[in-house]
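Example record used in the benchmark description.
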Amino acid sequence: MVCGVLSLGLYGVSGYLVGAECALSSGLPAFDVVGLPDVAVKEARERVRSAIKSSGFEFPVSRITVNLAPADRKKAGTVYDLPILVGILAASGQLKLRGMEDAAFLGELSLSGRLRPVSGVLPMALAAQRAGLRRLFVPADNAPEATLAEGLEVYPVETVDELAAHLRGERTIAPAPVWQPLGAELPLPDFSDIKGQEETRRALEVAAAGGHHVLMSGSPGSGKSMMAKRLPSILPNLTRAEALECTEIYSVLGMTSRERPMVLRRPFRAPHHTISPVGMAGGGSSLRPGEISMAHNGVLFLDELPEFEPGVLEVLRQPLEDGQAQITRVSGSVTYPSRFMLVCAMNPCRCGWYGHPSGRCTCTEQAVRRYLGRLSGPLLDRIDICVDVPALEYEELAAPGEGNEPSSAIRARVNAARAVQAARFGPDGPACNAQMGPKDLKRYCRLDEECQTLIQGAYESLGLTARSYDRVLRVARTIADLDGAQDIALPHLAEALQYRPPAYLRR
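Model output (structure tokens):
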């Protein structure tokens, strides 16, 4: 007898339907799983066997063949334990699946028949929703996450006994309610803690308002890392669509939980400079997302930028342009979303004091050039805003901090500028000024004659490229939005030009 049960699989951060076809036939007892299963799927045989016996059912003494279709796509993980078990029980006549044509099953089994949570439930639930399924049976710990795919009835299952009783109509499992966040999130670090550094605070405000990439350069202790960590406090809230995109990535990585099934804040990722290219971009044997995908819709902070290996920094170049990371290995090719704000901090030399008025720098000119030479021109060309962060004077440190502007005030201006951009581009356009394409630049970044004269001189004197020219226009458009101006004016363009890389980085 053959019985088919619907389940779901993962490819990258996209889910797809999987059919678990279970056939019982005469012959020597055997249990085979086909359809390109990995080791975890093959080991499901022992988990399913033990769970069936522990739950009071009889394990069929016959030849059992399970086909996971489509058979040409590799199946990985423990998500197929439950559909294999249900298929075997249905094929052996111990369970009836009438009316289950629009239902899918997924989950890992313990040897005692309890269900354990699995990774990637949200993208699989969204795939079930797109396929027109109405019901989804998942481990109870995964139910809050699965309910984020609206339009599905999600049934939280604790044990095989509980599921069997529901399918027989003896005891009903109530569908899980759509998950809602409970209580307020913990407060973020606030810009009111920052003393002085008005120019850098302004640069970060412009960056947040337009989604621009930032490089801060300055001596040790000037507050670069401290300000970078406060950047999320002035960024706009995630929209629901953005939150679901982030949650899909974190779900695939197993970083969601029953208590926190959804990403509610823009991610802030700060990998150490010893990270590998695979850790940054993603990959490995299982083609996992990397740090640039975990920072999607948020901030990727690289402290001590020149200390990163050149190969690690170069893998950022294409994602900074395209907003996605394509990973190709022998085992396959996947594309992960990777649209993030790149925020970098660095010292001007290895000792950190190059150019400081105190003359404390001990580096030779050759050592400084070698240190800065770790940053390639194409990478710097992709950064919209470069700002020098000077060391604080004693008077600034000793001054009382009551008058420092809080993040809430900065965020109000950022939200106002983002609202202007949302109205300008519409729902199908770019999310912010930093994502404008050539057509958008031509339409929304027109320059009058005075501005054209200024940028022409800057183009020649600063050695701008076509890419950096476009980035100047995007930043100028953001400054004009913060100013409430309809068109880019001379002061807006002049400020944007000041944010190009300083001379010591361009040499």
